[in-house]
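Box 4.2: Ligand-aware structure prediction
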Amino acid sequence: MQAVLLVGGEGTRLRPLTCKTVKAMVPILNRPFLEHLVSYLAQHGIDDIILTLCYLPDTIEKYFGDGSGFGVKLTYVMEESPLGTAGAVKNAERYLDDTFFVFNGDIFTDLDLKAMLSFHREQKAKATIALTPVDDPTAYGVVEMDSCPRVGRFVEKPKREEVTSNLINAGTYILERDVLTEIPPETRFMFEHHLFPTLLRNGSLICGYPSDAYWIDIGTPQKYCQVQYDLLQGKGRTSLYSRSRREEMSCGARSSIHPMAKVEGPVVIGDDCSIGPHVQLKGPAVIGNNCRILDGAIVERSILWSSVLVGKKACLEDCIVGNNSSIGEGSFVGEGSVIGENVTVTDGSRVEPAEKIWPDTEV
Ligand code: GDD
Ligand code: MG
């Protein structure tokens, strides 16, 4: 089975994390997001995957190669300038045959794809869209049903007063290849604004496939943390993190935790880390590879990427710290703040709650 993954967006809402790291490669429990997605697809028998790329493509290609190390075949299709979600799929048309999946490259879900495919085939739909309920549909695309399961209307990012349903487009589609004839080549074209409304006008059958599977769009710092806290607490599933380890703590190779450190799980610690004496590590939290947390520091409910240094008695609360950044001795990093890569927070500094610090800077 084939799938096209849309991984060409800039990830603006995740900045400053995505200034140097493409959204698809941001770490989730210390493994690139895309690796979780690829392994989920492989498990569901989708082993021929086409990646549509635009922004910072090299890191993805370098990590995944031809996909053989991940049990799949990967094909890379480049866009010189962003072609939009449907334009990107049109650009990959030469690699596609009959029925295929499309995934937004920022969705974490455990939706049963085989069941969705059977549904699509039973309904003889031209397109089937996975739907998920959310509390606030204004950040997403609302899908209105005409008569279940037939879709009647799309309202992308509705204003609050326009919201008519809490069922949104979950960013997973099954398409018949002939719908690609409705997409103009080399033109910016969106599923949400252009292709789906065109298909409806033509009288094509678009079905909605609602489910209450775990679902999250990782595209904001808050959701990016949430997915990891959920996985650590047993919500959602990924084959890259085993259930038996969920309880308290998983510690990578060559990492050391001082006997006087206090770790309250669930916490994932990467390889080659050192956790010093009197450190308090309070989960849910993720510590990347090669991090050092020095004496008496407190790290609570946070995500640290690789090679982060947390100085003595520093205090981090509900924050994200990018690769190669250091938090000085006695510094405080407040709730909801996001520190980009290669940032130096000097000794005794204060990063206010919700503050965003751009890469390669000193605070
Ligand atoms: N190749 C390529 N080219 N990919 C793109 C492009 C492009 O021009 N534009 C966006 N993408 C990719 C992004 O990288 C992302 O993985 C996916 O398409 C969706 O783009 P977002 O920018 O994250 O869209 P959204 O989250 O605001 O809204 C979409 O997803 C919602 C579900 O999370 C829409 O499909 C909504 O209708 C939907 O509810
Ligand atoms: Mg998104």
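In the box above, the bound molecule is magnesium ion. The CA atoms of residues 68 and 74 lie 8 Å apart.
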